[in-house]
Amino acid sequence: MSGHQSPHLPADGHAPVPPPPGGYDTVPPAGGPPPPPPGPPSGDTMPGQYVPVQNVPGPPPPVVPGAGGQPAGDPPRRNGRRALIIVAAVLVLLGAGVGAWFLLRPPPIPDPEPAAEELAAALQAGTPADFPLTMDTSASPDEQYAAVFEQLVAAVGEDAGTVALKSVTPLEEGDGGTATATATFMWTWPVASEEAWEYETVAQLTYPGPADGEAGEWEAAWDLGLLAPGLEAGERLAVERTEPVRGDIVTTGGETIVGLTPVHRVGIDKTRPGWETAAAQLGEVLGFDRSTTDDIAAQVQSAGAKAFIDVITIRDNDPEYDFEAAMAIDGVVGIPDEIPLARDRDFARAVLGTVGEATEEIVKESEGTIKAGDMVGLSGVQAAYDEQLRGVPGLAVTIEPAEGAEGGESREAFTIEKQDGEPVAISLDPATQLRAQATLEDFGDLATAIVAIKPSTGAVLAAASGPGSEGFNTATLGQYPPGSTFKIATSLAMLRSGTTPDSTLPCTATINVEGREFKNVPGYPQSAMGDAVPFRTVFANSCNTAFISQHDAISQQQLHDAAAALGLGADHTVPFGGSAGFGDVPTEASGTEHAASMIGQGQVLATPLAMATVAASVSAGHTVSPWLVEPTGKDAEAEPAGDLTEDEAATLRDLMGGVVEEGSATVLQDIPGIVGAKTGTAQFGDGSKAHVWMLAVADDLAAVVFIEEGELGSTTAGPVMHEFLKGN
User: CA 370, 187, 110 angle in degrees (round to 5)?
Assistant: First the structure.
């Protein structure tokens, strides 16, 4: 038939292979009759399905010779199916065996190194019990750790010590899946600023094997030797610092200016009877004002029950305080001590500075170098050279025996020898400094200063700030308009622009610049005024209007450069060696500001130290870099920073000489060796008040006097300068 498919054929059009009688689970006997062919499918049978039909005749299939009666053609499906079933069964059995083998196999031993890293972290944190430990004691590892390192942690800081894993030995497997390994740790304790205590400890690691099919954890055997070498049960580390002797401050000639001085620290001891009323009585005996006494009483009340409140340090045999009367007060105690002090309480105090307990800020900034309670420089030279003066503390770490242990002795674990502080040599001349201080004693609450420099060397011989400065270092840090003393710098700029001492200038009563009127100081001599006054006369009498008349000829930059050549507003090549300022002369200014700069006002600022440097440079014939702490090495060999020439300086000396001969500093005419001077008056506020100055050069000494408020440089500062130089 064509065009359609026989209903007795499967969908692919091929005759199906007949199944054996009884289905595929039946194997015919060898050599038996061939099975009958299948009949047509029933109506319940889908094409391609086989349904055995008995007694349906048909030709027997061909027999393959030697096959035992096996029909030729496709191999019997029943044998192939059985083979497949057998193979599948074997594979299932094999798979089940392999899976069971994998399931039953113990997990691999973990790498010990991550565990050792965890132990290192626990040791650094101070919590060794955070790591699995094997113990042979009931003691708490964390508590033992804290006890062992208590003093060391206090000495170096809570977060200062570090523990790092150095190495781990390859693990060694044992029976039953166990293993062992050894970890070595490096401990570092920064016990000094430039030195650390480093040592190694060893931990025995064990792996107990898996538990419940899961991998186990590495454990460490707990032993105090894990914290420090040789440490045994009950022992701990002790730390003792040995304080160095603070270096002295000496003169360049070796004379001690500041050294250890016997004192008594006087305070109130709250463990003593009578402390409740001690503050009021002590304040009365020592002459404190009510506010100070009340502050002391408040400190006493707020302090702990066993506190000692330090009130004052009194030198032995100090005539200013009645030490014996203070000791007679119930609750008051005097503790003997030695601290670095100057020969006299007020000797250059603002320059030399003070020593006291390190503040919290100083401790923090030192990054471990300085500890709470250390004595350090708090100001002045003591602070600037604190590291050199302070030295390096010694430190001893010892292993202390367990409490109650018989025959136990301390064993040294680590030692740093102390290094005493080195002296600092300064330029101050005691006699000159004391004379300057005495000269300023009577100026009440006014800030005052005297600075004296030796021009030939740049050494600062005196830097005195008067009582009215209230402890502030007016001498080297106080900045004020220098007034007419700045005319030395203005004159240098004019000389460089072609003016000579004999050049004439207009010295009028007033001069107007862009609507602002400038005039001379009250009492300016009429004889020194006119339309054509010699420059030497203008300088000698300090004619403001004459100098301002040149503001168009001299730029602000030229003023700045001339001032720098004299050391004012300059960057000096030689370090001063303490707290110092050298003023400021702007490089730009115009109009009335520039005009004011010509006479040392406007935005021009100077310190007494800077103006003394100007006088010293004129005297020396080159730019002087003043110094307080003796320069060493390359600093001592540094060339002057400025460009002042000897010819320029000689002309300036001649002009300053005229100030003494005929000008505003005639008061100094009887000073031996006087070379020259210059006065200065700088109005401030509403113009009714003035800062007053005087510079002077006498022999190999350049000095400046500054008084915060006065009438004129000639009338107020002049007599002070005379008194100071007269004792030279």
Answer: 145
pLDDT given at position 299: 95
pLDDT at 344: 85
d(CA 676, CA 313): 45
Q: What is the pLDDT of residue 64?
A: 39
Residue 565, judged by CB atoms within 10 A of its CB (0-12, 13-18, 19+), counts as buried
- At 656, the amino acid letter reads M
In the prediction, which pLDDT does 374 show?
87
CA dist 609 and 705 (Å) reads 10
Token pair belonging to 677: 């001077």
Cα 321 from chain centroid? 40
Pairing verdict, β 162-168 and 179-192: antiparallel
Of 3, 203, 25, nearest in space to 113 by CA? 203
> Which positions of the chain have pLDDT values less than 50?
1-81, 83-102
Is residue 164 within 8 Å of 201, Cβ to Cβ? no
Q: Contact 532/546 with Cβ under 8 angstroms?
A: no
The DSSP code for 627 is B
Residue 429 DSSP label: -
Rounded distance between C-alpha atoms, residue 156 and residue 198, angstroms:
13
Give 104's strand partners.
none
Burial 58-84 (b: 16+ CB within 10 A, else e): eeeeeeeeeeeebbeeeebebeeeeee
Alpha-carbon gap, residue 169 to 183, rounded angstroms = 7
Angle at 503 between CA 498 and CA 508, to 5 degrees: 120
DSSP E strands: which ranges in 535-688?
674-684
Rounded CA-CA distance 230/221 in Å is 16
Q: Give the separation between CA 159 and CA 367, rounded to whole angstroms.
A: 12
What is the per-residue pLDDT across 622-666, written as a single tens digit (0 to 9) for each? 999 999 999 888 888 777 778 999 999 999 999 999 999 999 999
Burial 158-196 (b: 16+ CB within 10 A, else e): eebbebebeebeebeeeeebbbebbbebebbbbbbeeeb
- Neighbouring residues of 291: CB distance < 8 A, sequence distance ≥ 6: none
483's tokens: 């007034």
User: 591 near 616, Cβ under 8 Å?
Assistant: no
Cβ burial of 664 (10 Å; 0-12, 13-18, 19+) is: buried
User: Please, which contacts does 195-201 make with residues 24 or more away whose CB atoms are closer than 8 Å?
Assistant: 195/416, 197/397, 197/413, 197/414, 199/228, 199/229, 199/414, 200/166, 200/229, 201/225, 201/226, 201/227, 201/228, 201/229
What is the structure's pLDDT at 407? 66
Query: Tell me, what's the pLDDT at 715?
Result: 95
User: By the 8 A CB rule, do 533 and 506 touch?
Assistant: yes
Beta bridge partners of 184: 167, 202
pLDDT in the model for residue 159: 67
Three-state DSSP class for residue 410? coil
Distance (Å) of CA 524 to CA 509, 531, 548, 672, 721:
9, 15, 16, 27, 21
Work out the burial of residue 333: count CB atoms within 10 Å of its CB; fewer than 13 is exposed, 13-18 middle, 19 or more buried.
Answer: buried
Asked whether 290 and 241 are in contact (CB, 8 A), the reply is no
For residues 483 and 599, the answer to whether their CB atoms sit within 8 Å is: yes
| CA 171 – CA 178 distance, rounded (Å) | 10
The token duo for 254 is: 């070796």
C-alpha 632/C-alpha 571 separation (Å) is 18
So what's the pLDDT on residue 463? 98
The residue assigned the tokens 């007060």 is 329
Please count the CA atoms within 13 angstroms of the CA of 688 that sit on its side-chain side.
Answer: 1
